[in-house]
Amino acid sequence: MITIAAEQATDDATKAATLADEPRRRGFAFWVVRYLPAEIVGTAAMIMAGLGVTIWTDAPALIAIAALLGEIVGFYLVLAITIYIEQHAVSANWRRAIIRTFLLLVAEFGVAELLDTLLIRPAALVAGVWLLPDPMWGLLAGKVFADVIFYAIAAGAFTLTARTGLRDGRRSRERAS
């Protein structure tokens, strides 16, 4: 009887340790803090680039392309810095942190970005500029629509990289052992 109780206590301790190692369920505040700075810079860059080309053209497709490129640059500049800071804490040196940053950007946003950049966002931005009389409001409406789809995919990829240990360096430490 004592042996069974000891085994049960050991199993409970093992389960508790495993649960402690699992990333905790992330709430709304986590996602806001993680993505809001990149969204602010990306949106500002999108508006500046999109409205900037209206000096030369009123073609919705060209406005949308300029806006798309501006948003990509602004958004990923902030996220690259954010992820580098996160990875610098778990990497052996700055070179390793840069490599991990690049790999995590691809893992977290690769699929979402391909679908977003090649299909969803251009269509949403063009539709917004075409449907609404003011290009700024058209760009913002298209952006919001595309962002909902983008974040559904990106948040899932972030959770996957966290659960597999890629984000916190567990995988690299396990390989080294």
> What global shape is seen?
elongated
What ranges have pLDDT less than 50 throughout 5 or more consecutive residues? 8-23
Give the biggest beta sheet: none
Based on CA atoms alone, the radius of gyration comes out at 21 Å
Overall structural class, as computed from helix and strand content, comes to mainly alpha
- Report how far apart the termini are: 37 Å
Record the SSE blueprint:
Elements: H1 2-21, H2 28-52, H3 60-88, H4 94-131, H5 135-163, H6 170-176
Question: Can you walk through the features of this model?
Answer:
Helix 2 packs across helix 3 and helix 3 (60-88) packs antiparallel against helix 4. Mean pLDDT is 81; it is low at 8-23. The protein is mainly alpha-helical. Helix content is 84%, strand content 0%.
